[in-house]
Amino acid sequence: LHFFNPVTQLPLVEVIRCEDTNQEALDIAFGFVKTIGKLPLECRSSPGFVVNRLLAPYMAEAMYLAKEGIPLAVIDRAAEDFGMPMGPIELIDTVGLDIAMGVSKVLGEAFDRAVPSEISNMVERKELGRKTGKGFYKWQDGKPIKNIVEPAMITQSLIDRLILPLVNEAAACLFEGVVKDDDSLDAGVIFGTGFAPFRGGPLQYARERGIDEIVNALTSLARELPNGDRFEPHPGWSNMRG
Known about the structure:
Largest sheet: 2 strands, parallel
Number of helices: 10
Number of strands: 4
């Protein structure tokens, strides 16, 4: 069983199915999770399962944007304007940079992704985020100190750069059978990450916006940005058309 922090607030629990897991074990796990009042999501055993796998490219893109000089508060505000409960920079600080680095290493090895050097350097300096009072932000009374953001600084392109990597990874998870269907994945991402509930989850968002439009937007970003191959549309999108 994979819980999420803070355990008292996040309702999702990933129930991991391995190749040799029998149905009785799954039934016991599902029963326990429901008994404690939480939502079970069955996942095939694979790096990052679902929630961490989807959050990794979302957080990584925030690091790319920060490197390009986009103010941290602007990056967070773009995600919040989309409907996320908090932006990726604040999320990293809240989870803890040491935890974020550990997850990044596991997924980096599995999917050939680099661990952002900023995170490694900050962990070495013991700047771990909220729990140490300093990470990407300085924290006071449990809240990050942020600069004021002008609404004009938030663009659709900025939002797409943050959200579409997460959405693309959702298509990959479905294609690979990490979860059994669209609805389960969407529910898991909403309850595990707080993904804008009114958008129905990443795959429902993609369907409402249009699969072709999502693929075209990803393709454009892949061509326009340096090292843009991280935006290459996953082949799984072809199964979702129609």
